[in-house]
Amino acid sequence: MFSSQEIIETINMVKQSNLDIRTITIGVSLFDCCSDVPQKFIDNMKKKITKYAGNLKSVADEIEDMFGLPIVNRRVALTPISLLTFSYSYEDLLKVASVADQVARELNIDLIGGYSAVVHKNYDDNTRKFISSIPDAIAQTERLCSSVEVGSTRFGINLEVISHLGYIIKEIAQKTAERDSFGCARFVVFANAPDDNPFMAGAFHGAGEGDVCLNVGISGPGVIKKALEEKKDATVDEIYETIKKMAFKVTRTGQLVMQYACKKLGIPAGIVDLSLAPTPKIGDSIAEILEEIGIDKVGGYGTTFALAILNDAVKKGGAMAATFTGGLSGAFIPVSEDSGMVKGVESGSLTLEKLEAMTSVCSVGLDMIVVPGDIEPELISGIIADEIAIGVYNNKTTAVRVIPAYGKKEGDKVNFGGLLGSSTVMKINTVSPKKMIKRGGRVPPPIIALRN
Amino acid sequence: MRAIITVVGKDRVGIIAAISTLLAENNVNILDISQTIIQGFFTMIMLVDLQNSKLKFSELKDALIRRGQEIGVDINMQHEDLFNAINRI
Q: Hey, are the CB atoms on B4 and A252 less than 8 Å from each other?
Protein backbone atom coordinates (compact mmCIF):
# COMPACT_ATOMS: atom_id res chain seq x y z
CA MET A 1 0.00 0.00 0.00
CA PHE A 2 1.13 3.55 -0.67
CA SER A 3 1.50 6.08 2.12
CA SER A 4 -1.18 8.76 2.40
CA GLN A 5 1.46 11.32 1.51
CA GLU A 6 2.34 9.57 -1.73
CA ILE A 7 -1.28 9.29 -2.75
CA ILE A 8 -2.15 12.86 -1.90
CA GLU A 9 0.94 14.14 -3.70
CA THR A 10 0.05 12.16 -6.82
CA ILE A 11 -3.54 13.40 -6.80
CA ASN A 12 -2.45 16.99 -6.24
CA MET A 13 -0.07 16.78 -9.20
CA VAL A 14 -3.15 16.43 -11.39
CA LYS A 15 -5.68 18.49 -9.44
CA GLN A 16 -3.58 21.45 -8.32
CA SER A 17 -0.55 21.45 -10.59
CA ASN A 18 -2.21 20.71 -13.95
CA LEU A 19 -0.28 17.51 -14.63
CA ASP A 20 -1.45 16.14 -17.93
CA ILE A 21 -0.25 14.28 -20.97
CA ARG A 22 -0.04 16.75 -23.81
CA THR A 23 -0.49 14.27 -26.62
CA ILE A 24 -0.67 10.73 -27.85
CA THR A 25 0.57 10.87 -31.42
CA ILE A 26 0.35 7.93 -33.78
CA GLY A 27 2.97 7.99 -36.52
CA VAL A 28 1.72 6.41 -39.73
CA SER A 29 3.95 5.57 -42.68
CA LEU A 30 2.42 6.34 -46.08
CA PHE A 31 5.15 4.70 -48.15
CA ASP A 32 2.90 1.78 -49.05
CA CYS A 33 0.10 4.16 -50.09
CA CYS A 34 2.08 5.62 -53.01
CA SER A 35 0.57 5.71 -56.47
CA ASP A 36 0.98 7.54 -59.77
CA VAL A 37 -2.74 8.14 -59.56
CA PRO A 38 -3.40 10.81 -56.91
CA GLN A 39 -6.90 9.56 -56.10
CA LYS A 40 -5.50 6.10 -55.40
CA PHE A 41 -2.91 7.53 -53.01
CA ILE A 42 -5.63 9.55 -51.27
CA ASP A 43 -7.86 6.49 -50.86
CA ASN A 44 -4.95 4.42 -49.54
CA MET A 45 -3.95 7.17 -47.12
CA LYS A 46 -7.47 7.51 -45.78
CA LYS A 47 -7.75 3.75 -45.28
CA LYS A 48 -4.42 3.49 -43.53
CA ILE A 49 -4.95 6.39 -41.12
CA THR A 50 -8.37 5.01 -40.24
CA LYS A 51 -6.93 1.53 -39.68
CA TYR A 52 -4.42 2.70 -37.09
CA ALA A 53 -5.97 5.81 -35.58
CA GLY A 54 -9.65 4.87 -35.84
CA ASN A 55 -9.81 4.02 -32.14
CA LEU A 56 -7.32 6.57 -30.89
CA LYS A 57 -9.96 8.90 -29.48
CA SER A 58 -11.86 6.19 -27.59
CA VAL A 59 -8.70 4.53 -26.23
CA ALA A 60 -7.27 7.87 -25.08
CA ASP A 61 -10.60 8.71 -23.41
CA GLU A 62 -10.59 5.38 -21.62
CA ILE A 63 -7.00 5.79 -20.34
CA GLU A 64 -7.79 9.33 -19.25
CA ASP A 65 -10.71 8.05 -17.20
CA MET A 66 -8.80 5.12 -15.74
CA PHE A 67 -5.95 7.21 -14.37
CA GLY A 68 -7.84 10.44 -13.83
CA LEU A 69 -5.10 12.01 -15.93
CA PRO A 70 -6.07 14.41 -18.73
CA ILE A 71 -4.74 13.58 -22.21
CA VAL A 72 -5.10 16.92 -23.92
CA ASN A 73 -4.64 15.99 -27.58
CA ARG A 74 -4.94 12.99 -29.87
CA ARG A 75 -2.78 13.40 -32.97
CA VAL A 76 -1.48 11.69 -36.09
CA ALA A 77 1.86 12.26 -37.82
CA LEU A 78 2.33 11.19 -41.45
CA THR A 79 5.36 10.51 -43.66
CA PRO A 80 6.35 13.89 -45.15
CA ILE A 81 3.82 14.22 -47.97
CA SER A 82 6.30 15.96 -50.27
CA LEU A 83 8.35 12.75 -50.49
CA LEU A 84 5.40 10.82 -51.91
CA THR A 85 3.80 13.26 -54.32
CA PHE A 86 6.55 14.42 -56.70
CA SER A 87 4.48 14.03 -59.84
CA TYR A 88 1.27 15.56 -58.47
CA SER A 89 -0.24 18.81 -59.67
CA TYR A 90 -0.86 21.76 -57.36
CA GLU A 91 -4.57 20.88 -57.24
CA ASP A 92 -3.80 17.24 -56.39
CA LEU A 93 -1.58 18.35 -53.52
CA LEU A 94 -4.39 20.48 -52.11
CA LYS A 95 -6.73 17.53 -52.38
CA VAL A 96 -4.32 15.37 -50.37
CA ALA A 97 -4.21 18.12 -47.72
CA SER A 98 -7.95 18.45 -47.60
CA VAL A 99 -8.58 14.70 -47.29
CA ALA A 100 -5.98 14.32 -44.50
CA ASP A 101 -7.79 17.11 -42.67
CA GLN A 102 -11.18 15.54 -43.31
CA VAL A 103 -10.00 12.16 -41.95
CA ALA A 104 -8.72 13.90 -38.82
CA ARG A 105 -12.09 15.55 -38.29
CA GLU A 106 -13.97 12.31 -38.85
CA LEU A 107 -11.80 10.41 -36.37
CA ASN A 108 -11.77 13.21 -33.76
CA ILE A 109 -8.01 13.64 -34.19
CA ASP A 110 -7.09 17.11 -32.90
CA LEU A 111 -4.17 17.74 -35.26
CA ILE A 112 -2.63 15.85 -38.17
CA GLY A 113 0.96 16.61 -39.17
CA GLY A 114 3.19 15.71 -42.07
CA TYR A 115 2.29 18.14 -44.84
CA SER A 116 6.01 18.58 -44.79
CA ALA A 117 9.12 18.92 -46.90
CA VAL A 118 12.78 18.32 -46.23
CA VAL A 119 15.28 20.41 -48.16
CA HIS A 120 18.68 19.05 -47.25
CA LYS A 121 20.48 19.98 -50.43
CA ASN A 122 19.13 21.48 -53.65
CA TYR A 123 15.78 23.15 -53.79
CA ASP A 124 14.26 21.26 -56.72
CA ASP A 125 11.15 22.20 -58.70
CA ASN A 126 8.93 19.52 -57.17
CA THR A 127 9.74 20.59 -53.62
CA ARG A 128 9.27 24.23 -54.63
CA LYS A 129 5.83 23.38 -56.00
CA PHE A 130 4.99 21.55 -52.80
CA ILE A 131 6.14 24.39 -50.54
CA SER A 132 4.19 26.87 -52.70
CA SER A 133 1.04 24.85 -51.96
CA ILE A 134 1.42 25.16 -48.16
CA PRO A 135 -0.47 28.48 -47.74
CA ASP A 136 -3.54 27.20 -49.61
CA ALA A 137 -3.29 23.80 -47.91
CA ILE A 138 -3.33 25.46 -44.49
CA ALA A 139 -5.97 28.03 -45.38
CA GLN A 140 -8.44 25.39 -46.59
CA THR A 141 -7.96 23.07 -43.60
CA GLU A 142 -8.51 23.22 -39.84
CA ARG A 143 -6.32 20.54 -38.35
CA LEU A 144 -3.54 19.98 -40.86
CA CYS A 145 -0.02 20.93 -39.75
CA SER A 146 2.93 21.60 -41.98
CA SER A 147 6.69 21.92 -41.62
CA VAL A 148 9.81 22.44 -43.69
CA GLU A 149 13.31 21.44 -42.68
CA VAL A 150 15.74 23.92 -44.20
CA GLY A 151 18.98 22.73 -42.71
CA SER A 152 20.82 20.23 -40.59
CA THR A 153 24.20 19.89 -38.95
CA ARG A 154 24.92 16.97 -41.22
CA PHE A 155 23.99 18.57 -44.53
CA GLY A 156 24.17 22.33 -44.12
CA ILE A 157 21.59 25.06 -44.76
CA ASN A 158 19.66 26.02 -47.86
CA LEU A 159 19.35 29.81 -47.91
CA GLU A 160 17.22 29.82 -51.05
CA VAL A 161 14.38 27.99 -49.30
CA ILE A 162 14.73 30.25 -46.24
CA SER A 163 14.30 33.21 -48.57
CA HIS A 164 11.17 31.64 -50.11
CA LEU A 165 9.67 30.82 -46.71
CA GLY A 166 9.58 34.50 -45.71
CA TYR A 167 7.03 34.94 -48.50
CA ILE A 168 5.23 31.68 -47.72
CA ILE A 169 4.69 32.71 -44.08
CA LYS A 170 3.37 36.12 -45.17
CA GLU A 171 1.01 34.38 -47.58
CA ILE A 172 -0.31 32.02 -44.87
CA ALA A 173 -0.86 35.06 -42.64
CA GLN A 174 -2.78 36.85 -45.36
CA LYS A 175 -4.87 33.79 -46.29
CA THR A 176 -5.91 33.25 -42.67
CA ALA A 177 -6.19 36.97 -41.89
CA GLU A 178 -9.73 36.73 -40.53
CA ARG A 179 -8.42 34.70 -37.56
CA ASP A 180 -5.40 36.85 -36.64
CA SER A 181 -3.32 34.85 -39.15
CA PHE A 182 -3.89 31.74 -37.07
CA GLY A 183 -2.74 29.53 -39.98
CA CYS A 184 0.88 30.43 -39.19
CA ALA A 185 0.50 28.51 -35.91
CA ARG A 186 0.18 25.35 -38.01
CA PHE A 187 3.45 25.87 -39.85
CA VAL A 188 6.99 25.54 -38.54
CA VAL A 189 10.49 25.81 -40.03
CA PHE A 190 13.11 23.42 -38.66
CA ALA A 191 16.79 22.72 -38.41
CA ASN A 192 17.69 19.15 -37.39
CA ALA A 193 14.02 18.09 -37.32
CA PRO A 194 13.45 14.88 -35.35
CA ASP A 195 11.68 12.00 -37.12
CA ASP A 196 9.67 11.01 -34.04
CA ASN A 197 8.37 14.29 -32.66
CA PRO A 198 4.85 14.01 -31.22
CA PHE A 199 4.38 17.79 -30.88
CA MET A 200 2.74 20.02 -33.44
CA ALA A 201 3.05 21.83 -35.73
CA GLY A 202 6.25 19.94 -36.50
CA ALA A 203 5.29 16.29 -36.13
CA PHE A 204 5.93 14.00 -39.08
CA HIS A 205 6.67 10.29 -39.34
CA GLY A 206 10.27 9.98 -40.51
CA ALA A 207 11.48 7.67 -43.23
CA GLY A 208 13.15 5.21 -40.85
CA GLU A 209 10.26 4.91 -38.42
CA GLY A 210 8.61 1.69 -39.60
CA ASP A 211 4.99 1.22 -40.56
CA VAL A 212 3.38 2.66 -37.45
CA CYS A 213 4.32 3.69 -33.90
CA LEU A 214 2.93 5.57 -30.96
CA ASN A 215 4.70 8.55 -29.39
CA VAL A 216 3.74 10.39 -26.23
CA GLY A 217 4.44 14.01 -25.33
CA ILE A 218 4.37 14.94 -21.67
CA SER A 219 3.54 18.23 -20.05
CA GLY A 220 3.70 19.35 -16.42
CA PRO A 221 5.43 22.71 -15.85
CA GLY A 222 2.96 23.26 -12.99
CA VAL A 223 4.31 20.24 -11.12
CA ILE A 224 7.88 21.57 -11.28
CA LYS A 225 6.76 25.05 -10.27
CA LYS A 226 4.85 23.72 -7.26
CA ALA A 227 7.84 21.67 -6.09
CA LEU A 228 10.12 24.70 -6.37
CA GLU A 229 7.73 26.85 -4.34
CA GLU A 230 8.75 24.74 -1.37
CA LYS A 231 12.47 25.39 -2.02
CA LYS A 232 12.68 29.10 -1.34
CA ASP A 233 16.12 28.96 0.32
CA ALA A 234 17.63 26.12 -1.71
CA THR A 235 20.91 26.38 -3.62
CA VAL A 236 20.86 25.86 -7.38
CA ASP A 237 22.10 22.30 -7.04
CA GLU A 238 19.20 21.54 -4.71
CA ILE A 239 16.83 23.14 -7.20
CA TYR A 240 18.37 21.05 -9.95
CA GLU A 241 17.81 17.88 -7.92
CA THR A 242 14.18 18.82 -7.22
CA ILE A 243 13.46 19.44 -10.91
CA LYS A 244 15.10 16.13 -11.81
CA LYS A 245 12.94 14.18 -9.38
CA MET A 246 9.70 15.82 -10.46
CA ALA A 247 10.59 15.39 -14.15
CA PHE A 248 11.12 11.70 -13.40
CA LYS A 249 7.63 11.42 -11.92
CA VAL A 250 6.02 13.37 -14.74
CA THR A 251 7.75 11.26 -17.36
CA ARG A 252 6.73 8.04 -15.64
CA THR A 253 3.11 9.00 -16.29
CA GLY A 254 4.00 9.45 -19.97
CA GLN A 255 5.62 6.03 -20.05
CA LEU A 256 2.57 4.51 -18.34
CA VAL A 257 0.16 6.07 -20.83
CA MET A 258 2.38 4.88 -23.66
CA GLN A 259 2.30 1.28 -22.41
CA TYR A 260 -1.47 1.21 -22.01
CA ALA A 261 -2.19 2.98 -25.30
CA CYS A 262 0.16 0.71 -27.27
CA LYS A 263 -1.41 -2.40 -25.78
CA LYS A 264 -4.98 -1.28 -26.36
CA LEU A 265 -4.34 -0.08 -29.90
CA GLY A 266 -1.99 -2.91 -30.88
CA ILE A 267 0.64 -0.44 -32.06
CA PRO A 268 4.38 -0.65 -31.24
CA ALA A 269 5.87 1.89 -28.85
CA GLY A 270 7.79 4.82 -30.27
CA ILE A 271 9.20 7.35 -27.84
CA VAL A 272 8.31 9.51 -24.87
CA ASP A 273 9.16 13.13 -25.58
CA LEU A 274 10.48 14.76 -22.40
CA SER A 275 9.45 18.27 -23.31
CA LEU A 276 7.62 20.22 -20.65
CA ALA A 277 4.82 21.66 -22.76
CA PRO A 278 3.11 24.65 -21.13
CA THR A 279 -0.53 25.69 -21.58
CA PRO A 280 -2.07 29.14 -21.31
CA LYS A 281 -3.49 28.20 -17.88
CA ILE A 282 -2.06 30.09 -14.90
CA GLY A 283 0.28 27.71 -13.05
CA ASP A 284 1.20 25.73 -16.15
CA SER A 285 3.96 27.98 -17.39
CA ILE A 286 7.68 27.66 -18.07
CA ALA A 287 8.10 31.39 -17.45
CA GLU A 288 6.69 30.95 -13.95
CA ILE A 289 9.29 28.24 -13.22
CA LEU A 290 12.10 30.58 -14.30
CA GLU A 291 10.63 33.29 -12.08
CA GLU A 292 10.35 30.80 -9.21
CA ILE A 293 14.06 30.00 -9.65
CA GLY A 294 14.67 33.66 -8.98
CA ILE A 295 14.36 35.97 -11.98
CA ASP A 296 11.96 38.77 -11.09
CA LYS A 297 10.47 38.78 -14.56
CA VAL A 298 11.13 36.33 -17.35
CA GLY A 299 13.56 37.80 -19.88
CA GLY A 300 15.75 39.52 -17.29
CA TYR A 301 19.46 38.73 -17.11
CA GLY A 302 19.90 35.23 -15.71
CA THR A 303 16.90 33.84 -17.61
CA THR A 304 19.08 31.84 -20.01
CA PHE A 305 21.01 30.41 -17.05
CA ALA A 306 17.81 29.38 -15.24
CA LEU A 307 16.40 27.85 -18.42
CA ALA A 308 19.59 25.87 -19.02
CA ILE A 309 19.34 24.36 -15.52
CA LEU A 310 15.66 23.55 -16.00
CA ASN A 311 16.19 22.00 -19.42
CA ASP A 312 19.11 19.81 -18.41
CA ALA A 313 17.52 18.63 -15.16
CA VAL A 314 14.28 17.73 -16.97
CA LYS A 315 16.24 15.64 -19.46
CA LYS A 316 18.24 13.84 -16.77
CA GLY A 317 15.17 13.01 -14.69
CA GLY A 318 13.05 12.16 -17.68
CA ALA A 319 15.62 9.94 -19.38
CA MET A 320 15.60 7.62 -16.35
CA ALA A 321 11.81 7.29 -16.47
CA ALA A 322 11.26 6.32 -20.09
CA THR A 323 12.50 3.33 -22.06
CA PHE A 324 12.77 5.21 -25.35
CA THR A 325 13.18 8.95 -25.37
CA GLY A 326 13.11 11.10 -28.46
CA GLY A 327 11.33 13.86 -30.29
CA LEU A 328 12.26 17.32 -29.07
CA SER A 329 12.82 16.47 -25.40
CA GLY A 330 13.48 19.76 -23.66
CA ALA A 331 11.63 22.71 -22.18
CA PHE A 332 9.42 24.54 -24.69
CA ILE A 333 9.23 28.30 -24.62
CA PRO A 334 6.29 29.18 -26.86
CA VAL A 335 5.12 32.71 -26.16
CA SER A 336 1.36 32.78 -26.77
CA GLU A 337 0.86 29.33 -25.23
CA ASP A 338 2.48 30.34 -21.95
CA SER A 339 0.71 33.04 -19.93
CA GLY A 340 3.94 33.87 -18.06
CA MET A 341 5.82 34.48 -21.32
CA VAL A 342 2.99 36.71 -22.57
CA LYS A 343 3.23 38.75 -19.36
CA GLY A 344 6.97 39.09 -19.96
CA VAL A 345 6.36 40.41 -23.46
CA GLU A 346 3.70 42.84 -22.25
CA SER A 347 5.90 44.21 -19.48
CA GLY A 348 8.81 44.63 -21.89
CA SER A 349 11.10 42.27 -19.96
CA LEU A 350 11.03 39.58 -22.64
CA THR A 351 12.29 40.56 -26.08
CA LEU A 352 12.73 38.65 -29.31
CA GLU A 353 16.51 38.89 -28.89
CA LYS A 354 16.36 37.34 -25.41
CA LEU A 355 14.10 34.58 -26.65
CA GLU A 356 16.64 33.82 -29.36
CA ALA A 357 19.38 33.50 -26.73
CA MET A 358 17.14 31.23 -24.65
CA THR A 359 16.63 28.89 -27.61
CA SER A 360 20.32 28.00 -27.56
CA VAL A 361 19.85 26.11 -24.29
CA CYS A 362 16.40 24.59 -24.59
CA SER A 363 14.11 22.72 -26.88
CA VAL A 364 12.96 24.03 -30.23
CA GLY A 365 13.18 27.74 -30.78
CA LEU A 366 11.26 30.90 -31.52
CA ASP A 367 7.81 29.51 -31.01
CA MET A 368 4.42 31.20 -31.31
CA ILE A 369 5.99 34.62 -31.71
CA VAL A 370 3.52 37.22 -32.94
CA VAL A 371 5.10 40.01 -35.00
CA PRO A 372 3.62 43.00 -36.86
CA GLY A 373 1.57 42.05 -39.94
CA ASP A 374 3.46 44.41 -42.24
CA ILE A 375 6.86 42.81 -41.55
CA GLU A 376 8.99 42.45 -44.69
CA PRO A 377 9.34 38.83 -45.88
CA GLU A 378 13.12 39.21 -45.78
CA LEU A 379 12.95 40.10 -42.08
CA ILE A 380 11.08 36.85 -41.44
CA SER A 381 13.76 35.03 -43.44
CA GLY A 382 16.39 36.79 -41.33
CA ILE A 383 14.72 35.61 -38.11
CA ILE A 384 14.61 32.08 -39.53
CA ALA A 385 18.25 32.21 -40.70
CA ASP A 386 19.50 33.21 -37.23
CA GLU A 387 17.52 30.51 -35.49
CA ILE A 388 18.55 27.82 -37.98
CA ALA A 389 22.20 28.83 -37.53
CA ILE A 390 21.86 28.27 -33.77
CA GLY A 391 20.53 24.78 -34.44
CA VAL A 392 22.94 23.75 -37.18
CA TYR A 393 26.13 25.03 -35.55
CA ASN A 394 25.22 23.71 -32.09
CA ASN A 395 24.00 20.34 -33.32
CA LYS A 396 20.49 20.69 -31.90
CA THR A 397 16.95 21.07 -33.11
CA THR A 398 15.72 24.60 -33.55
CA ALA A 399 12.56 25.90 -35.14
CA VAL A 400 10.66 29.05 -35.98
CA ARG A 401 6.92 29.40 -35.68
CA VAL A 402 6.30 33.06 -36.26
CA ILE A 403 2.95 34.76 -36.84
CA PRO A 404 2.90 38.04 -38.73
CA ALA A 405 -0.62 38.93 -37.57
CA TYR A 406 -2.36 40.50 -40.54
CA GLY A 407 -3.31 44.14 -39.98
CA LYS A 408 -1.82 44.18 -36.45
CA LYS A 409 1.02 46.32 -35.20
CA GLU A 410 3.38 46.25 -32.24
CA GLY A 411 1.49 46.16 -28.94
CA ASP A 412 -1.82 44.95 -30.46
CA LYS A 413 -3.44 41.87 -28.98
CA VAL A 414 -4.21 38.64 -30.82
CA ASN A 415 -6.20 35.69 -29.59
CA PHE A 416 -5.93 32.19 -31.08
CA GLY A 417 -7.96 30.38 -28.45
CA GLY A 418 -7.47 26.97 -26.83
CA LEU A 419 -3.96 25.63 -26.34
CA LEU A 420 -2.49 28.27 -28.65
CA GLY A 421 -3.51 31.05 -26.28
CA SER A 422 -3.21 34.74 -26.92
CA SER A 423 -0.38 37.24 -27.15
CA THR A 424 0.75 40.77 -27.76
CA VAL A 425 2.46 41.67 -31.03
CA MET A 426 6.21 41.87 -30.32
CA LYS A 427 8.67 44.57 -31.20
CA ILE A 428 10.99 43.64 -34.04
CA ASN A 429 14.34 44.98 -35.23
CA THR A 430 13.69 46.39 -38.70
CA VAL A 431 17.27 46.55 -39.97
CA SER A 432 17.08 44.76 -43.31
CA PRO A 433 19.02 41.54 -44.03
CA LYS A 434 17.61 41.63 -47.57
CA LYS A 435 20.95 41.68 -49.39
CA MET A 436 22.16 38.55 -47.62
CA ILE A 437 18.84 36.71 -47.89
CA LYS A 438 18.64 37.47 -51.62
CA ARG A 439 22.05 35.89 -52.20
CA GLY A 440 20.45 32.44 -52.01
CA GLY A 441 22.58 29.34 -52.40
CA ARG A 442 23.61 26.68 -49.92
CA VAL A 443 25.67 26.87 -46.75
CA PRO A 444 28.05 23.89 -46.47
CA PRO A 445 27.74 21.75 -43.35
CA PRO A 446 29.78 22.99 -40.39
CA ILE A 447 33.06 21.32 -39.44
CA ILE A 448 31.30 19.39 -36.61
CA ALA A 449 29.46 17.47 -39.34
CA LEU A 450 32.70 15.77 -40.36
CA ARG A 451 32.74 13.16 -37.66
CA ASN A 452 33.72 9.99 -39.41
CA MET B 1 -7.47 -4.75 -11.64
CA ARG B 2 -6.85 -2.72 -8.48
CA ALA B 3 -7.70 0.90 -7.94
CA ILE B 4 -7.20 3.63 -5.36
CA ILE B 5 -10.30 5.43 -4.13
CA THR B 6 -9.74 8.74 -2.38
CA VAL B 7 -12.37 10.58 -0.40
CA VAL B 8 -11.79 14.15 0.71
CA GLY B 9 -14.25 16.34 2.55
CA LYS B 10 -15.65 17.57 5.84
CA ASP B 11 -15.83 14.82 8.44
CA ARG B 12 -19.34 13.53 9.28
CA VAL B 13 -21.09 10.36 10.38
CA GLY B 14 -21.47 7.61 7.80
CA ILE B 15 -18.91 8.41 5.12
CA ILE B 16 -17.21 5.02 5.26
CA ALA B 17 -20.59 3.27 5.51
CA ALA B 18 -21.96 5.06 2.45
CA ILE B 19 -18.99 4.16 0.30
CA SER B 20 -18.38 0.62 1.52
CA THR B 21 -22.06 -0.20 1.03
CA LEU B 22 -21.88 0.91 -2.59
CA LEU B 23 -18.72 -1.15 -3.11
CA ALA B 24 -20.26 -4.25 -1.44
CA GLU B 25 -23.40 -3.97 -3.58
CA ASN B 26 -21.20 -4.12 -6.64
CA ASN B 27 -18.96 -6.93 -5.43
CA VAL B 28 -15.87 -4.76 -5.05
CA ASN B 29 -13.46 -6.00 -2.41
CA ILE B 30 -11.73 -3.50 -0.10
CA LEU B 31 -8.09 -4.60 0.35
CA ASP B 32 -6.85 -1.78 2.52
CA ILE B 33 -8.24 1.35 4.05
CA SER B 34 -6.74 4.29 5.91
CA GLN B 35 -8.05 7.60 7.07
CA THR B 36 -6.43 10.74 8.28
CA ILE B 37 -7.01 14.47 8.63
CA ILE B 38 -4.90 16.47 6.14
CA GLN B 39 -5.04 20.27 6.30
CA GLY B 40 -8.28 20.05 8.26
CA PHE B 41 -9.99 17.77 5.75
CA PHE B 42 -11.10 14.22 6.32
CA THR B 43 -9.11 12.12 3.86
CA MET B 44 -9.80 8.45 3.30
CA ILE B 45 -7.78 6.23 1.01
CA MET B 46 -8.94 2.78 -0.07
CA LEU B 47 -7.23 0.14 -2.14
CA VAL B 48 -9.88 -1.97 -3.86
CA ASP B 49 -9.94 -5.02 -6.10
CA LEU B 50 -12.23 -4.66 -9.13
CA GLN B 51 -11.68 -8.17 -10.49
CA ASN B 52 -15.24 -9.32 -9.77
CA SER B 53 -16.90 -5.92 -9.94
CA LYS B 54 -20.42 -5.91 -11.38
CA LEU B 55 -19.75 -2.52 -12.92
CA LYS B 56 -17.18 -1.45 -15.48
CA PHE B 57 -14.42 0.91 -14.24
CA SER B 58 -16.05 4.06 -15.59
CA GLU B 59 -19.52 3.08 -14.33
CA LEU B 60 -18.24 2.41 -10.81
CA LYS B 61 -16.29 5.66 -10.86
CA ASP B 62 -19.42 7.58 -11.86
CA ALA B 63 -21.47 5.82 -9.17
CA LEU B 64 -18.87 6.75 -6.54
CA ILE B 65 -18.75 10.36 -7.67
CA ARG B 66 -22.56 10.55 -7.46
CA ARG B 67 -22.56 8.98 -3.99
CA GLY B 68 -19.91 11.53 -2.96
CA GLN B 69 -22.11 14.38 -4.14
CA GLU B 70 -25.02 13.00 -2.08
CA ILE B 71 -23.00 12.97 1.12
CA GLY B 72 -20.96 16.10 0.41
CA VAL B 73 -17.48 14.67 -0.16
CA ASP B 74 -15.16 14.60 -3.14
CA ILE B 75 -14.56 11.04 -4.34
CA ASN B 76 -12.13 9.88 -6.97
CA MET B 77 -11.02 6.53 -8.28
CA GLN B 78 -7.84 5.90 -10.24
CA HIS B 79 -6.12 2.78 -11.51
CA GLU B 80 -3.40 1.66 -9.09
CA ASP B 81 -0.77 1.72 -11.84
CA LEU B 82 -0.69 5.54 -11.86
CA PHE B 83 0.52 5.50 -8.26
CA ASN B 84 2.95 2.70 -9.01
CA ALA B 85 4.39 4.62 -11.96
CA ILE B 86 4.92 7.81 -9.99
CA ASN B 87 5.96 6.44 -6.60
CA ARG B 88 7.70 3.12 -7.24
CA ILE B 89 10.66 2.22 -9.42
A: no
